[in-house]
Amino acid sequence: MESKSRLNILVIHGPNLNLLGQRETNIYGSTTLGQINDLLEREAQSLDVSVSTIQSNSEGELVDAIQSCLGKYQGSILNAAAYTHTSVAIRDAIAAVSLPTVEVHLSNIYRRESFRHHSYIAPVVLGQISGFGARSYLLGLHALVGYLKDSNLFISRSPS
């Protein structure tokens, strides 16, 4: 009997998210990035998956993180923050690796400045969750794990 391997998910936090809890709390809340990562770890354990996290303010490092997913992770959760609205490089990296990815945002980007209404990333990800604060990450994790488990179930039932 073949053993099931545990799903590995990479959570990628973009620029300025290292300042959560102290920056613009009226928009982003008082939860710190460390607290979000702790919430994700606990939720991942309850879902029997593994999560790893990375944060960078550098666009190139975020591209490198996305490219590094190949062969290590079955999916990713990405909060590209301001790069959501500006980075073709991050969009192209997601498309290049073809890894199931969920885009998340703490705030509802569609209730903010008009330049935040466009996401270069949205067309190449499974879906987007925004506006639920730290819970956006947890919702993203549930959505991604459900998708991956359903996909694996479908694949395992497919005729050979």
UniProtKB/TrEMBL annotation:
SUPFAM superfamilies (alphabetical): Type II 3-dehydroquinate dehydratase (SSF52304)
GO molecular function, one term: 3-dehydroquinate dehydratase activity
Pfam families: DHquinase_II (PF01220)
Annotated site (Transition state stabilizer): R23
The entry's keywords: Amino-acid biosynthesis, Aromatic amino acid biosynthesis, Lyase
PROSITE patterns associated with the record: DEHYDROQUINASE_II (PS01029)
CDD domains found in the cross-reference section: DHQase_II
Record field: catalytic activity: 3-dehydroquinate = 3-dehydroshikimate + H2O
Pathway(s) annotated for this protein in UniProt: Metabolic intermediate biosynthesis; chorismate biosynthesis; chorismate from D-erythrose 4-phosphate and phosphoenolpyruvate: step 3/7
Assembly with partners or alone: Homododecamer.
Family matches, as HAMAP family: AroQ
Protein name (Swiss-Prot/TrEMBL): 3-dehydroquinate dehydratase
Gene from which this protein is expressed: aroQ
